[in-house]
From TrEMBL:
<dbReference type="GO" id="GO:0006508">
    <property type="term" value="P:proteolysis"/>
</dbReference>
<dbReference type="GO" id="GO:0008233">
    <property type="term" value="F:peptidase activity"/>
</dbReference>
<dbReference type="Pfam" id="PF01136">
    <property type="entry name" value="Peptidase_U32"/>
</dbReference>
<keyword id="KW-0645">Protease</keyword>
<keyword id="KW-0378">Hydrolase</keyword>
<dbReference type="InterPro" id="IPR001539">
    <property type="entry name" value="Peptidase_U32"/>
</dbReference>
<protein>
    <submittedName>
        <fullName>Putative protease</fullName>
    </submittedName>
</protein>
<dbReference type="InterPro" id="IPR051454">
    <property type="entry name" value="RNA/ubiquinone_mod_enzymes"/>
</dbReference>
Length: 662
């Protein structure tokens, strides 16, 4: 990519943070409306507030990008149409999306909208960027887990704008591939409602530990290299953060970008961002000590030495001021209290403040300094126009919904079975299934005997599955491997990322697994138009959403161990069985595969008892996933019988199928 001015992109979760971003020196601001954005717990912006923000930003020549970076349920398509129509008319500079259904509708009906691919879309190599370019996506927000070498290769090959997170919180799992929160209570991370299970304490070998609690990202040390690579936009995470945080971080990076000689001064500013400990992560080859042993943000300033008569006393070497924001952490249960220091009394290093909250403060509780108001920013827009989102006419919405229908003949019922180890081939009766999906590692595929008589005789039933993550380093290896497999007559594939179809020959048959998300008819239609033969519905989906769909040609996953965390970040679990428990005594299993850390629940998700209901609703394609299970004839026979007779498999859970995905 050529040399150009580097864009500094800041978050705004509310009006105050928006002004903080502008005053801090942002070139662009990203923000969300009340719906369809990955920070559902932020205050976000109403229609009038967005119009006021656009007007203010235009005065200062600052761009505004609106986040629509969640997956969309099928019944939400009508509301989505209204939102897209409003944003196109408002003239926002771009929308940031995750769902291919949103992409399809935007291209179909709102061609003026500029589209940026969210990091939730999982673009982690040049193949993802190339596919996005072909789809006329203007910018790709890359995965946070890239090494500098990988980023250099991607930047060199890209003709599309690239955006990268340079500061803020890190998710343990690849963005877009985390189902832990959804599994625990239906609060889907891909729906903007993450309950942050990676920040929790778990029981490992009878000890309480933070296993997945990552430090914060900070790329100030790599800033010069990122600019030299031509990364178009450098992005700060933090739509849930305070205006003070936004201003301080914006000011620091603005200073370092404009005048590299002030890098040390910028670093001093960032030390007071009140976040977690910092890490340069994979870009800085800095992952060994990436886990922190506290989930609290802020600077530890001391411990409570007295809590009595409505006053709390602590000792600290840090100079505190009236109005400073602090967080008190109860050391017994890790719960917290957020408050401002009021009626502060200072005697050398001893501080006392008034506390009249209901939660009890105890001696020994830790105090964290989490903010100081150094500058005030407007909390309201001075000129708030009257703007209201209008509903598109019913007839127009009906026409769009009709355009989303896939015209195809009903197919006979089919059963697909997925296995993740070659040993399974000795345990199953391949004639009992319509499709056998081989989800092997690269090394297993390289050593697999595709010329074996049994395999050749059944190649019409065999599908090869590509992994969710293929590093830039191994792209060429996979391309060569797939060419060799195709030459041996195997031309049926399931891909885990839509860009992976570029690895395959044009005459190969391409299907997509449940990691290419289909939560709505628009996504199904988009895949169909992209010549995807079979698609799958996500395992976290619920029955009501499935029933609401018109495009029911997809494959319903009826049995699987869901991969709750899928991460490039290694973690240490002390338990010999590599198991750990949460605070409700649920057990989870950690495994490593091809350099990826995977966490699964102890029991599978199984929906065999709902098979007849699904068939009644028009679904006829099903999948059984035997991954993460020990190869066994008994297991295969048991699972197959439960499928045939639509009987409940025990022990198991039903995930969100009945309780609903929020």
């Amino acid at each position: 990519m050529g040399n150009r001015k580097t864009e500094l992109l800041l978050p705004a979760g509310n009006t105050e943070s928006f002004y903080a971003a502008l005053d801090g020196g942002a070139d662009a601001v990203y923000l969300g409306l009340k719906n369809f954005n990955a920070r559902g717990r932020a205050a976000n912006f109403g229609e009038s507030h967005l119009m006021a923000a656009l007007k203010e930003a235009q005065k200062r020549k600052v761009k505004i990008y609106v986040t629509l970076n969640t997956v969309i349920k099928n019944k939400e398509i009508d509301d989505l149409l209204d939102v897209l129509a409003f944003l196109e008319k408002a003239g926002v500079d771009a929308i940031i999306i995750q769902d291919w259904g949103v992409y399809h509708i935007a291209r179909l009906r709102f061609p003026k909208l500029v589209i940026h691919a969210s990091t939730q879309m999982g673009n982690h190599n040049s193949l993802g960027v190339e596919f996005s370019t072909q789809k006329k996506i203007a910018r790709v927000i890359l995965a946070r887990e890239l090494t500098m070498t990988e980023l250099k290769h991607i930047a060199k090959r890209s003709t599309t704008e690239l955006e990268l997170f340079i500061h803020g919180a890190l998710c343990y799992s690849f963005s877009g591939l985390c189902f832990f929160s959804s599994y625990l209570g239906g609060r889907g991370a891909n729906r903007g409602l993450c309950a942050q299970p990676c920040r929790r304490i778990y029981q490992d070998d009878q000890q309480s530990k933070f296993l997945f609690n990552l430090k914060d990202n900070q790329q100030l040390p790599n800033l010069k290299q990122l600019q030299q690579l031509g990364i178009h936009s450098l992005k700060v995470e933090g739509r849930m953060k305070s205006a003070d945080y936004v201003y301080r971080v914006a000011k620091a990076y603005r200073m370092a970008i404009d005048d590299p000689s002030k890098k040390e001064e910028a670093e001093q500013l960032l030390r007071m961002d009140f976040g977690r400990e910092k890490i340069a992560y994979f870009l800085g080859k800095d992952v060994r000590d990436g886990i922190t042993n506290t989930s609290n943000t802020g600077i530890l300033i001391g411990k409570v030495i007295l809590a009595k008569d409505g006053k709390v006393t602590f000792e600290s070497d840090t100079a505190m001021q009236e109005g400073d924001r602090i967080r008190i952490r109860h050391i017994q249960d890790d719960s917290t209290i957020n408050l401002k220091l009021r009626e502060l009394e200072v005697a050398e290093s001893r501080y006392s403040f008034v506390y009249d909250g209901q939660e009890k403060v105890r001696v020994g509780d830790e105090l964290y300094w989490v903010g100081r108001r150094e500058q005030r920013f407007p909390g309201k827009f001075a000129d708030l126009p009257h703007a209201r989102m209008k509903s598109l006419p019913y007839g127009e919405k009906k026409k769009v919904r009709q355009q989303l229908l896939i015209k195809s003949r009903p197919s006979k019922p089919r059963l697909f079975v997925r296995v993740d180890q070659p040993d399974w081939l000795r345990k199953i009766r391949i004639e009992d299934v319509d499709g056998l999906i081989l989800s092997f590692t690269r090394k297993e595929l390289e050593s697999f005997d595709f010329a074996a008589r049994f395999i050749q005789q059944n190649k019409h039933r065999i599908y090869i599955e590509t992994p969710k993550f293929i590093s830039e380093e191994h792209l060429e290896d996979y391309q060569k491997l797939i060419r060799r497999i195709e030459k041996q007559g195997f031309r049926q594939f399931f891909i885990s990322h839509l860009s992976q179809r570029l690895l395959l020959s044009k005459d190969s048959q391409v299907s997509s697994n449940e990691n290419v998300y289909v939560y709505n008819d628009a996504a199904a239609k988009m895949l169909n138009d992209t010549r995807i033969r079979n698609f799958c519905y996500p395992l976290e989906n619920d029955f009501d959403n499935l029933k609401s769909m018109q495009n029911k040609q997809g494959i319903v996953l009826l049995h699987a161990y869901p991969e709750l965390f899928y991460s490039r970040m290694p973690v240490r679990v002390a338990s010999e069985e590599q198991q750990f428990k949460d605070d409700t005594n649920k057990t989870f299993q950690k495994a490593s595969r091809d350099g990826i850390t995977i966490v699964t629940p102890e029991a599978p998700v199984s929906l065999f008892q709902y098979k007849k209901q699904l068939q009644k609703e028009g679904f006829s394609n099903f999948m059984i996933d035997l991954s993460h299970e020990k190869p066994s004839k008994h297991t295969f026979k048991k699972v197959l019988n439960k499928f045939r007779f639509a009987e409940q498999y025990q022990p198991s859970t039903t995930f969100n199928f009945k309780k609903g995905l929020q």
